[in-house]
Specification:
The chain is of the alpha+beta class. The chain has helices at about 1-15, 25-30, 35-40, 65-70, 80-85, 110-115, 160-165, 175-185, 190-200, 205-215; strands at about 20-25, 45-50, 55, 80, 100-105, 120-125, 140, 155, 235-240, 245-250. A 3-stranded antiparallel sheet has the order 1-3-2. A 3-stranded mixed sheet has the order 4-5-6. A two-stranded antiparallel sheet has the order 7-8.
């Protein structure tokens, strides 16, 4: 019995990459029952993060593997908005501990074991006509060192991330900061932006994207045909916020 327990522990340690949290289901796939997991915790061979979530002692969860674990329980979860822009190198300010902006298809809450380590906000948002299992222009993240895509967290492409930011203007996103971010988006791909805008469900987001693009003379805006985009009615879109009145003409 003791030999079996040791062999299962060795198999777990050999397959568990550094900084990777595991669930009870993961342990069960390795032949480790719930009772055996409790034994490992009491013996100091596993650390319990929350009910049904564990990590190796002295090896706290890292961000990327933690996100891939959360993607299994929150449909459509991905890094988006300002965080995705930052990951792609588009940023205005450098914060010592920035808030991580996560988006998903369904209502839900981030677990405490995650938010205690990684300050984050979760937004349920359906900004595009798409399926939760086939999000538009959301891909596994590849860092600049060319790390493997396997097990990488999902992140919005820069074009989608910008629209996610603009969709929050007038709600929780200051217009001035959004404008400053648009200033740094000269390299956006017009074809990708067009694809997203055509399926965008927010008239405000479409109009604001075009308006800021024109005001800041971004090269991609001239390649977009407003007549092919969901601009809404012929009336101006008006919203009042702490920054004043926002008027978006068609």
């Amino acid at each position: 019995m003791a030999t079996t327990i040791r062999n299962k522990l060795k198999r777990l340690q050999s397959r568990l990459a550094p900084g990777t949290p595991v669930t009870s289901e993961d342990l069960a796939d390795l032949g480790i029952s719930a009772d055996l997991a409790v034994h490992y915790v009491r013996a100091g061979w596993l650390e319990r993060l929350a009910r049904g979530v564990y990590c190796r002692p002295g090896d706290p969860p890292a961000l990327h593997p933690s996100l891939t674990l959360l993607q299994r329980s929150l449909q459509g979860l991905h890094v988006g908005g300002k965080s995705a822009l930052d990951w792609h190198g588009i940023r205005q300010y450098v914060s010592p501990r920035p808030m991580l902006h996560l988006y998903g298809w369904q209502a839900g809450r981030l677990p405490e074991w995650f938010t205690l380590r990684f300050p984050a906000e979760y937004h349920r948002k359906r900004l595009f006509r798409e399926r939760p299992d086939a999000l538009m222009h959301v891909r596994p993240f590849e860092n600049r060192q060319g790390a493997s895509r396997q097990g990488a967290p999902l992140v919005s492409a820069p074009e989608r991330a910008l629209l996610e930011v603009l969709s929050e203007v007038g709600v929780r996103q200051p217009l001035q900061e959004a404008r400053e971010l648009v200033e740094s988006t000269y390299s956006l791909r017009a074809a990708v932006l067009r694809d997203l805008l055509k399926r965008c469900t927010s008239v405000k987001t479409v109009r604001l994207c075009l308006q800021l693009g024109r005001e800041l003379s971004q090269p991609w805006v001239g390649k977009l045909d407003p007549s092919q985009l969901p601009m809404g009615s012929g009336r101006p879109w008006v919203s009042r916020s702490a920054e004043g009145l926002l008027v978006l003409k068609p």
